[in-house]
Write a structure and sequence with these properties.
PLP-binding_barrel; alpha/beta; 2 domains; isomerase; alanine racemase activity; pyridoxal phosphate binding; 10-stranded mixed β-sheet; TIM Barrel; pyridoxal phosphate; 4-stranded parallel β-sheet; binds pyridoxal-5'-phosphate
């Protein structure tokens, strides 16, 4: 009977993904951008929400395209039946050209080697596949240098099997609200595109921005925008909340395993990093840093029990976290506990969690491990 044993989780800890909220966020953003195409960024397992269900919901809600960072994510989406264009937004190695062509993924090209590899593979498979040129206008992560781009196009633009459908860049400081730097990058991008056009190198689809540009800078939408985080209900920065209303898509809930009374002056958890000051009621929640619930939340973070905020106490372990439920009446094992989301009048947002550990919302959402069961509602 060994084959019947699996690692499938029966833990009460569940990430609830609200597909209706996701759909509404996508539709709102699509309406907000009016004429441009919307590429829904579903990288990193859809920021932790599950790439397959989210990818399909995005397309159903009106996203024109999808964006991922790995060839594997793109291949999974294709195999699950997505026919919309799927962009690989990161740099990939030439060895991945076979999969890029086989799955008809739209690669971001910034190296001659990759351009040649995809060209050769497309020719071999009798294909003509779309690619986008990535320009580096200041993020200095990857992309062709604007000074080198004419040269680049002289060697790569006419390679067999490639269709240069688009050109794009990514801003370094839009979320920080540094419009001066962002506008400089934008100007450099537009000037470079014009320079290329004059040499006969045309790219019909130009795109520059993620959620922040989608929400705040209609003047930079061009032919396409690439929101990610906003689809999942979070504005990259709070100043955007007045512009468009979004609804968080993920809720994380669990159940109290044990509730115990611990005497005063007693150390609790690994290393005794928390010591009770009076007689206290301590409960165990079955989640830990092995689930992606950051250890940095030890003695800092909060959860919701019976509609009240309670503190995490002691050091978070791989699988378990302790909370102080002293003073909350009628509490017992089996009671619901909310780690992310609303309960009664209180709410813990991914931004709260990010603030507690000096991180960002994307990291909080995307770090939730696969072993935490996702439930789609
Ligand atoms: C991640 C990413 C996005 C989406 O960014 P958000 O700020 O989450 O909207 C857009 N474009 C590129 C190239 C990305 O890597």
């Amino acid at each position: 009977m060994l084959h019947s044993v699996s690692l499938e989780s029966h833990s009460p800890t569940v990430a609830e993904v609200d597909l209706t909220a996701f759909k509404e966020n996508t539709q709102k953003l699509k309406k907000h951008v009016e004429k441009s195409m919307l590429l829904a960024v579903v990288k990193t397992n859809a920021y932790g929400h599950g790439i397959i269900p989210i990818g399909h919901e995005a397309v159903n809600a009106g996203a024109d395209r999808l964006g991922v960072t790995t060839v594997e994510e793109g291949a999974m989406l294709r195999e699950s039946g997505i026919s919309a264009p799927i962009h690989i937004l990161s740099s990939v190695i030439p060895e991945q050209a076979v999969d890029i062509v086989s799955y008809r993924l739209t690669a971001s090209i910034s190296s001659r080697k990759l351009a040649r590899a995809i060209s050769e593979e497309a020719t071999k498979q009798g294909q003509h596949i779309p690619v986008h040129l990535k320009l580096d206008t200041g993020l200095h992560r990857f992309g062709v240098d604007p000074h080198d781009v004419v040269d680049f196009c002289n060697t790569c633009y006419h390679l067999q099997g490639l269709y240069w459908e688009g050109i794009y860049t990514h801003f370094s400081s839009a979320d920080e609200g540094d419009w001066q730097l962002t506008e400089q990058q934008y100007t450099l991008f537009m000037e470079t595109v014009i320079k290329l056009n004059k040499q006969g190198f045309n790219f019909p689809v130009r795109h520059v921005g993620g959620s922040t540009i989608t929400i705040e800078r209609k003047d930079m939408h061009l032919e396409m925008v690439r929101p990610g985080l906003a689809l999942f209900g979070y504005h990259p920065v709070q100043r955007q909340q007045g512009i468009i209303k979004l609804k968080p898509v993920m809720k994380i809930k669990s159940q109290l395993l044990h509730v115990r009374e611990i005497p005063a002056n007693t150390p609790v958890g690994y290393g005794g990093s928390y010591v009770t000051s009076t007689k206290e009621k301590i409960a165990i929640v079955p989640i830990g840093h092995g689930d992606g619930y950051q250890r940095l939340l030890s003695n800092k973070g909060e959860m919701l029990v019976k509609g009240k905020r309670v503190k995490i106490v002691g050091t978070i372990s791989l699988d378990q976290t302790l909370i102080n439920v002293t003073g909350i009446p009628d509490i017992s094992s089996g009671d619901e506990v909310i780690l992310l989301g609303r309960q009664g009048d209180e709410e813990i947002s991914a931004r709260d969690i990010a603030n507690w550990i000096h991180s960002v919302v994307d990291e909080v959402l995307a770090s939730l491990m696969e072993r935490v069961r996702r439930e789609y509602v």
